[in-house]
Structure formats: C-alpha cells, structure tokens
Write a structure and sequence with these properties.
27% strand; 17 strands; binds zinc ion; binds NADP nicotinamide-adenine-dinucleotide phosphate; alpha/beta; 335 residues
Amino acid sequence: MERIQGVAAHAAGAELLPFHYDPGELKPLEVEIGVTHCGVCHSDLHLIANDWGISQFPFIPGHEVVGTITALGADVHTLEIGQRVGLGWQSNSCGTCEWCMQGMENLCAALEGTCVHRHGGYADRVRANFRFVIPIPETMDSAQTAPLLCGGITVYNPLRTHCINPSSRVGIVGIGGLGHMAIQFARVFGAEVTAFSTSAAKEEEARALGAQYFVNSRDSKAIKEMAGTQDFILNTVNADQDWSGYLQALRPLGTLCFVGVPPSPVSMQISPIIAGARSVTGSPIGSPSRLREMMDVAARHGVKAQIESFSMDKANAAIDKVKKNKVRYRAVLSN
Ligand code: NAP
Ligand code: ZN
C-alpha cells in the first residue's frame, strides 16, 4: 500500500508539518477516500492543542472530508470506486449495541473518530468504515459541502430532534462555522432566528443567511432584554459565557442546547429551569441516516457553507485565521 501523505502536529499546539504513514491493509468493510476537500472545524484546533486530553501525536487532523473513493474493502458492495462521497467526525461504531441497532450510531460508546487516535483528512487519503461514508448529491459543490459533514450535521441534528418549526423562535449563539450553517437550517425549518454574536461586522451577513434579529452577545443588557423570548437556543461558542443570561432568554419549556464546548464547567441558577420547566441539553454530531437526510435537505433547500479556500500546504494559515475568528465562515483545505 502506498503511504498516505498529510500534515501533522507532532506535539500539543505545534504547527502542522508534512508527514506520511503506512495505512496497512484495507479492512474488508473499509473505504479509502482520495481527499479533495477538508473543512477546518474548531474541534481540529481543540485536538491540536490537546484541550480534551485525548490527542495522540503525531496527529493529522481533519474530519470534514469530501473526496472520491480510491479503494473498497472486499465486503463493501454499496459504494463504487470513483464515487464522490463525504466523511465526518465519526468513522466507525460497534454496529451491535442498542444505540447502533436503533440507528443512533453517534451515541455508540465505541464510537471511532475520523481523527481521534488515528489520522484524519488533512491528507491525500483517509479511511473509514463504509457505513459512515455518505454519497454527495450531484448538484452540490464539494468545497461548500465539506463543512456540512461535521459542522452542518452538528447543528442540523438538534434542530431536527427538537422539532424546530415555523412557530419556533430560535437563538444561535456564535456565528462561526457551525453558527452560520445553523442560521440557514433553522430558517429551512421555518423558525424565527436571532443571531447572538460578538462581531458587529457579521450582522449584515447573518441577516442575509436568514437571521431576523441580531444581538451583541457581549452586551449583557441586550441579553437581559431578551428574557422569555426564545424557544430553543443553540450554543456554538467554545468560550465561557453568561449561561444564566441565555437561560433567562428562554420561554417556558424552552431548551438551551450546547454543541460548542466551553472550557469551564457550566454553572447556572436552577430556579428558572424549575419555574419554566426549561431544559439544558447537548448534542453530538448525528447518525449516518441523519447525515444522509441533512445532505438531501441541504441540496434541495440550498444550504451550504460560506467558505474561504486554502491549499492543503497552507493548513497552518487556515488554522491561524480560525483561531483569530477571522474566517467567514469556514476554512476549507483542498488538494
Ligand atoms: P468557529 O468557526 O471558530 O466559531 C465559533 C464562534 O464562536 C466564533 O465565530 C465566534 O462567533 C464565537 N466566539 C469565539 N470566541 C468567543 C468568545 N470568547 N466569546 C463569545 N463568542 C465567541 O468554531 P466552530 O467550528 O463553529 O466550532 C464551535 C464549537 O463547536 C467548538 O467548540 C467545536 O469543538 C464544537 N463542535 C462540537 C461538535 C459536536 O458534535 N457537539 C461538532 C463540531 C464542533 P461571533 O464572532 O459571532 O461571536
Ligand atoms: Zn468538527
């Protein structure tokens, strides 16, 4: 087998450097994808920094892959060589636990990440179990679709699970990679959308993406004025915030849902949760069947990532720009 060429961090927080590895024999249920595009998700930055204590170095990041199939395991019969496909955060699951059997493979305790304890998509090729390799609808652009494979499904899944509909008032906190796709999906579901952002310069674009309202998330008075207005607030921010403020912004029966990963434990008053029967929850990516559904919805309703393109050898520049919150709205690497 030819070695796989990519860019890897060799220590926590290190710059990515060219790196190659021997992928070994392709397993019977595996697919190898020739990567054409890979999105830069903030989770890649967390993994490079070893923020979650799960990174192993050297490490090739990348889990928002679009490419074409270059090799098929002996027992894969549902995909074809040359077919355009996508691969997200998850690359395998046990397939036999109660969650896998119910089609909720993203809740499997044996979930394997595309770039956790193995090398990901900032490379010329990447491998995964065929169940997690999703065909891309013909009409979709590869670069604008790659970010849907992690960022997109991560926001689509909770909006769908919590039955967002035209009566819903939805707040999206943080208008970055995830947030800008969340605005679009919430609009597709018919909701009234409020964008909460630290970046005043994003207001016009947030409105163009479908937000009716825009609130400065650093203005505690403005957040207070939102009290009792939102049915569902989706936090995509990876920094500590005044969570009690967002809890207060919920209507009775409202839900504050975390997909962004703030560094500190979250503390909030319990009385608004009890008094308004409000909920606080979280959501991890989505199952392969949700991923297929999301792709179909995105294709039919024109949901796509707004991207900035970088060649694979400029991965460090892309990462730097994400770190500085300067990307509008997803960096995508290409080979
Ligand atoms: P991103 O593109 O960097 O966007 C994050 C946004 O958060 C920024 O654009 C910014 O939006 C806002 N923000 C950043 N720093 C802030 C601060 N100090 N205070 C308030 N707001 C701040 O990141 P992403 O790729 O969307 O990922 C966001 C988070 O989701 C990460 O923690 C990532 O690990 C997590 N994630 C989780 C899952 C899951 O399955 N649950 C999947 C993918 C990613 P404004 O400029 O609008 O303020
Ligand atoms: Zn991700």
